[in-house]
């Protein structure tokens, strides 16, 4: 028996990296009963047959998993946002950050297209809101790679960000062999956006990354509104001052979080994002 990580799933085979080799494995009937199917990123135990082939006998419990892209055990979510074109949006960034927190992925913020920024003010305003909470990196056409190189080490990463922010450009910088289609290419060829392809974990600067430009929209299905506050770690220190232990920081009096916003100890954009997502979850239609 060997143990390794699934790095690719294709045509019924799961390609498992173990002890420096890649084995083509199958899942057999075992998982039909449990309705569980292996995902890229899973740590699996497998029985070797015919040299480099084998079959999976067990899947380790997952730390997390996403449906799109279908990847398990993600360590970090690289949230890509452009400063301009499309315009930087605090709310959208906060959505992605809360989503990462809800799925137990460490968020890393990457702000692209700094060459299009008005002046230094943009970056300073952003840093003042986020750099105390999350790692924030700035990139432009010329300097994408250098300061990002160390973020991948020993981690499984997935990229996320709205359309056109430069996700493919970023991936191509680190993985030139991948040659993902960026906007210029698809426009020049008069083609639409990327067609769906199988996801694969690629080696990148000492870690692994899903070779898709990731996802651009998110929903908070599965998250209870009472748990949303735990997805805003910068609220913690202020919520200790809330009068009510179960304070949701919405309508309650003597709320430490609301006071922190009033005293400019907490960014109003963060609080507003929280309230908007809170109401979105509250108004979610229950489906049976
Ligand atoms: N000025 C400037 N343009 C950039 C930068 N990074 C990417 N772009 C351009 O922004 C456009 C969109 O980049 P893509 O890499 O295709 O963006 P994407 O996030 O993969 O977009 P989708 O495939 O729609 O999700 C392209 O025209 C890129 O050349 C940058 O740092 N500065
Ligand atoms: Zn409160």
Q: Residue-averaged pLDDT, rounded?
A: 89
In angstroms, what is the radius of gyration?
Answer: 21 Å
Order of strands side by side in the largest beta sheet?
Answer: 10-9-8-11-13-12
Chain oligomer state = single chain
CATH fold-type name of the largest domain: Rossmann fold
Please trace the helix and strand order, writing H or E for each element. EEEHEEEEEHEHEEHHEEHHH
Question: What is the number of E strands?
Answer: 13
Helical content (DSSP H or I, runs of 4+) = 10-25%
CATH class of the largest domain: Alpha Beta
Enumerate how many helices there are, as a single number: 8
Binding site for GTP: 112-115, 161-169
Subcellular location: Cytoplasm
Protein name: Small ribosomal subunit biogenesis GTPase RsgA
Subunit structure: Monomer. Associates with 30S ribosomal subunit, binds 16S rRNA.
Structure overview:
- This protein has helices at 30-34, 90-102, 120-130, 167-174, 183-188, 236-239, 256-262, 268-282, and strands at residues 2-10, 13-18, 21-26, 43-49, 53-59, 65-66, 71-72, 76-82, 106-112, 136-138, 156-160, 201-204, 207-210.
- Residues 190-196 have low confidence and may be disordered.
- The chain is globular and about 70 Å long.
- The chain folds into 3 domains: 2-60, OB fold (Dihydrolipoamide Acetyltransferase, E2P) (Beta Barrel); 71-210, P-loop containing nucleotide triphosphate hydrolases (Rossmann fold), CATH 3.40.50; 225-282, Ribonucleotide Reductase Protein R1, domain 1, CATH 1.10.40.50.
- A hairpin with a 3-residue loop joins strand 4 (43-49) and strand 5 (53-59).
- Helix 2 (90-102) packs across helix 8.
- 24% of the residues lie in helices and 24% in strands.
- It has 8 helices and 13 strands.
- Zinc ion binds at residues 239, 242, 247, 249, 252, 255-257.
- Residues 239, 242, 247, 249, 252, 255-257 line the site of zinc ion (ZN).
């Amino acid at each position: 028996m060997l143990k390794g990580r699934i790095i690719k799933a294709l045509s019924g085979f799961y390609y498992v990296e173990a002890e420096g080799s890649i084995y083509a494995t199958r899942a057999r009937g075992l998982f039909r009963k449990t309705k569980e199917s292996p995902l890229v990123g899973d740590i699996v135990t497998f029985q070797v047959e015919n040299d480099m082939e084998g079959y999976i006998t067990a899947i380790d419990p997952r730390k997390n998993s996403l449906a799109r892209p279908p990847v398990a055990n993600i360590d970090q979510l690289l949230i890509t946002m452009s400063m301009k074109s499309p315009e930087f949006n605090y709310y959208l960034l906060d959505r992605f950050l809360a989503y990462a927190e809800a799925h137990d992925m460490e968020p890393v913020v990457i702000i692209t297209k700094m060459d299009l920024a008005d002046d230094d003010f943009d970056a300073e305003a952003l840093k003042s809101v986020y750099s105390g909470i999350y790692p924030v990196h700035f990139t432009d056409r010329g300097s994408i790679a250098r300061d990002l190189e160390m973020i991948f080490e020993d981690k499984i990463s997935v990229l996320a960000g709205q359309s056109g922010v430069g996700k493919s450009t970023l991936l191509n910088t680190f993985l030139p062999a991948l040659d993902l289609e960026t906007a210029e290419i698809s426009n020049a060829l008069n083609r639409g956006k990327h067609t769906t392809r199988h996801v694969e974990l690629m080696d990148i600067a000492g870690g692994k990354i899903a070779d898709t430009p990731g996802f651009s929209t998110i929903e908070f299905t599965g998250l209870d509104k009472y748990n949303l506050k735990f997805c805003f770690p910068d609220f913690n220190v202020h919520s200790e001052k809330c009068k009510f232990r179960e304070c949701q920081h919405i309508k309650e009096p003597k709320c430490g979080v609301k006071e922190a916003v009033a005293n400019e100890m907490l960014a109003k954009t963060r609080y507003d994002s929280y309230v908007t997502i809170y109401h979105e979850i509250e108004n979610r239609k229950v489906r049976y």
